[in-house]
Design a protein that fits this description.
- The chain has helices at residues 11-22, 36-46, 54-60, 75-84, 99-112, 126-136, 166-169, 171-175, 177-188, 285-298, 308-327; strands at residues 2-7, 26-32, 50-51, 65-68, 88-92, 116-119, 143-151, 193-200, 206-215, 218-225, 235-242, 245-252, 266-270, 276-278, 331-332.
- By secondary structure, it is α/β, with parallel strands linked by helices.
- The radius of gyration is 20 Å and the shape is globular.
- The protein is built from eleven helices and 15 strands.
- Bound molecules: nicotinamide-adenine-dinucleotide.
- The site of nicotinamide-adenine-dinucleotide (NAD) has 24 residues, from helix 1.
Length: 335
């Protein structure tokens, strides 16, 4: 049985807790949280020991894996603490706010001989996984262009509204947009040039982005932001255009993805054929990514989905998009 220490008792920690409960061979043995109200609600619900000091948790509990569900500006500090105590680390996306921090996280985990996986959850999300498999099998022929989008209301749950402060979260340009940037990297490989335009919030945060990326001739157009208004439902999706077909999927699932079952089918269109609704694995992708990490750790397999390298590439692209929006110029990656 692997023992998990969960860091944070906020929004995504609750999602992870539900996921860990279903992962065979794993048990959340304790959680760390500094906000007393959040801590007591979490403890009432899950009945697991609470610590307001991570060092004390590490001293008192026998832990194998540390699951970091803390605000992004804390990811490096807690990864370093966990790795230096030889604990494996699962860290929520974005890996960090700067490439320098992210590289340091990768280095310390390598040096300490512990695993590091980043929760780039679209790599486990049924429709995204299936669409990539179909692309690999040639279902749309040669990919010419990818559109992806993710739109929501401003997040309201974060403690002290840390997520709305660009210096703590990176803004939607980094926090939310990174999901689709990582997915398009997964489909198309190394991004080469990015041009983005965006909208800034009153806190000067790039919170709505329209990003165009060139992957050596194949183009991607990615829209992401959390400036929607009223009852606008959480909306995400993609369209993959190839020279032989098109794959399309979209979802408008409640205000905060709580109605995930209300998504539309993944559809394949090809000339001369009736449109086909594709079968997709229906399983909670957050559970799947945690189960995957546990399997990697337990069976000494390398992490291949959600690697630090993939997370760093996604972060570099998000930062380049933000820079492009700021400067009004194209930004070349790798320079
Ligand atoms: N993969 C996904 O779909 C997804 C979705 C939401 C959030 N996230 C990521 O998960 C991480 C946490 O986001 P969240 O939405 O759960 O945030 P949240 O604000 O709901 O939760 C963060 C928790 O960390 C605690 N915390 C501990 N020390 C803190 C400190 N010094 N300052 C502020 N909070 C502190 C807070 O009290 C809170 O309970 C972020 O990196 C975010 O980008 C990922």
């Amino acid at each position: 049985m692997k023992k998990i220490a969960l860091l944070g008792a906020g929004f995504i920690a609750g999602v992870h807790m539900e996921g860990w409960k279903r992962v065979e061979g794993a048990e959340v043995c304790a959680f760390f949280e500094t906000n007393l109200e959040k801590a007591s609600a979490f403890q009432d619900k899950y009945q697991i020991p609470h610590y307001n000091s991570f060092s004390r948790l590490l001293e008192e509990e026998k832990v194998d894996i540390v699951d970091i569900c803390l605000p992004t500006f804390l990811h490096r500090e807690y990864t370093e603490m966990a790795a230096s105590h030889e604990k494996h680390v699962f860290c929520e996306k974005p890996i960090a706010l700067t490439v320098e921090d992210a590289e340091a996280m990768k280095r310390i985990c390598e040096r300490s001989g512990v695993g590091l996986m980043v929760g780039q959850v679209l790599r486990f999300w049924g429709e995204y996984v299936k669409a990539r498999e179909l692309v690999e099998e040639g279902a749309v022929g040669k990919v010419l262009s990818v559109d992806a989008f993710r739109l929501s209301l401003p997040p309201t749950w974060s403690v002290d509204s840390w997520i709305l402060k660009p210096e703590l979260s990176g803004g939607a340009a980094v926090d939310l947009h990174i999901h689709d940037l990582d997915y398009v990297n997964w489909l198309l490989g190394e991004p080469q040039v990015v041009f983005a335009q965006g909208v800034r919030s009153p806190q000067n945060s790039w919170d709505h982005m329209v990003t165009v990326v060139n992957y050596g001739g194949v183009i991607a157009h990615i829209e992401g932001g959390w400036m929607m208004r009223g009852d606008f439902p959480f909306t995400c999706g993609f369209r993959i255009l190839g020279d032989e077909g098109v794959l399309e999927w979209s979802s408008r699932a409640g205000v905060n993805i709580e109605e995930r079952e209300k998504t539309s089918p993944l559809v394949l269109y090809r000339n001369g054929e009736a449109k086909k609704e594709m079968e997709v694995r229906e399983e909670d992708p957050y559970y799947l990514e945690l189960e995957y990490f546990l399997d990697c750790i337990e069976n000494n397999k390398p992490v291949e989905r959600g690697t630090p390298e993939q997370a760093i590439l996604a972060l570099r692209l998000a930062l380049a998009a933000r820079q492009s929006a700021e400067e009004g110029e194209k930004v070349k990656l790798g320079e």
